[in-house]
């Protein structure tokens, strides 16, 4: 009986051990299945394959603006109240034409006071001269002491100096009166009005802005990537959006030696040849740079040839501005790297993202032109560039409206 009870107890222990092992296996399998289910799925991204623009000159085409070669503010040389303005915005003025006047009352009083002081000084000088002549005649006869003659001579010299001072003050007051009339010092056109009738202005405060007539410039900002292809004296072809079908020849006359601290571009000024009256100030222009002339320096020629060969080899790519990202301070784009492009990297059969630095040669309103950094056929992320990370697993989906991303 005892032996039977011992066998039953042993069997019960074996059953409990088997149950525990089975339960542990089930828990392990459940844990494995949870880990597999938690693996993230590849993230969908909007990307398209890019292709070269097929134009080597696209990177050398820059937007610009038509401006006068010289533009200066017109201001009074004295302060006062404006009582009259004779020209308005857009008026053409001639050299020496009166454009505005100040209230001359105070200046007239100062001029009259200075003139009265000059007349008094002249009378004093005449009296001192007469006294000097009398004393000199008496001194010859030894009728006066030498000290008295010295005093008379000194009084005459003092009167002469006072007369000269009064004359200079009268001339200055006369100039001050003339300065109440503002005249154009060059022929040109009024491009801005900065003060109105009845306003009190200080000396040097701008009242108008005058664009001189004569040479017309096209001003554009050159990125540093295109700087090597530009030199003083180089010719360019200029087209104006307001004058379709026409083109003008321009020559680079000035190139900034330092980049703008904000845009990191270099200001270039080109003078238009034979700009007609239909070329108006402020028109938008497109500047297509031509090859450097043979008279350019050898250093510039080598730099230009290197830049052209690099542009021909890589080509340029026009992509939407929404694709632009930044790697530190450098422009960059997200490139979709195919699963089989880098063996041993990433998950087999899954595309990943790579942050690629690029060179932007032109910024347009909705697009950018990339000169270096991309290859033909590579896929570039167009949307959500600030929400992805390097090495992230993705799968590419086309844009919902492909026409919105057309170059």
From TrEMBL:
Pfam families: Beta-barrel_RND_2, BSH_RND. Residues 218-292 form the CusB-like beta-barrel domain. GO terms for cellular component: efflux pump complex. Residues 1-30 form the signal peptide. Residues 77-208 form the Multidrug resistance protein MdtA-like barrel-sandwich hybrid domain. Keywords: Signal. Coiled coil: none annotated. GO terms for molecular function: efflux transmembrane transporter activity. The keyword Signal applies. Belongs to the membrane fusion protein (MFP) (TC 8.A.1) family. This is Efflux RND transporter periplasmic adaptor subunit.
